[in-house]
Write a structure and sequence with these properties.
The chain is of the alpha+beta class. It has helices at residues 9-16, 22-25, 120-147, 162-165, and strands at 2-5, 31-36, 47-54, 57-69, 73-79, 89-99, 102-110, 152-157. A hairpin with a 2-residue loop joins β3 and β4.
């Protein structure tokens, strides 16, 4: 999902690359708190643990930063505690500065991280899951803009094949 945000690339990167701020910006509302598992500064390989709540069910996740390229990309693997794909979900943000106060922001999510057989029922489940996540990612971009003192301008663009295009899935 991509949007224009009226904030600098650096400011936006500083917010998303601080996992302890994720509860503030998570559009799903599922992330209740985050604690770092490794010392600052946060970089590729850093870990953090989240306490999350889906409706009435609370559960922990462990995440490990896969890509930290200041101020352009921050991607992490979230799930049961694996440090590298294929298990878990890849989440991330990519920033393209258009000028010093306008940034093209891509909010990324990829699951599953392994090949899914090309069966109609599985394809439908993957598509439904992706659409559900998009509905959570939209408010994330608004919250991110607000946290940066900016605003989302224009319409969102949604692409449902990020992994095939450019993610670190195969790295």
């Amino acid at each position: 999902m991509t949007a224009l945000i009226t904030a600098s690339c650096e400011t936006l990167f500083d917010i998303v690359s601080d996992p302890e701020r994720h509860p503030e910006i998570a559009g799903s509302g599922e992330i209740l708190e985050v604690r770092l598992l490794t010392p600052r500064p946060v970089r590729a390989g850093s870990g953090f643990q989240s306490r999350q709540c889906l409706r009435w069910y609370q559960y922990p996740t462990r995440s490990y930063v896969q890509v930290c390229e200041r101020p352009y990309r921050f991607i992490w693997l979230s799930g049961p505690g694996f440090r590298k794909p294929p298990f878990g979900q890849l989440w991330g943000f990519e920033f393209q500065p258009l000028d010093n106060r306008l940034t093209l922001v891509s909010h990324l999510m990829q699951i599953p991280l392994y090949p899914v057989p090309n069966l109609p029922i599985l394809n439908k489940l993957v598509e439904l899951g992706a659409r559900h996540e998009v509905s959570n990612m939209t408010p994330t971009l608004y919250k991110l803009a607000q946290a940066a003192g900016g605003a989302v301008i224009g319409d969102f663009q949604v692409v449902l094949d990020w992994c095939a295009q450019q993610s670190p899935c195969g790295q």
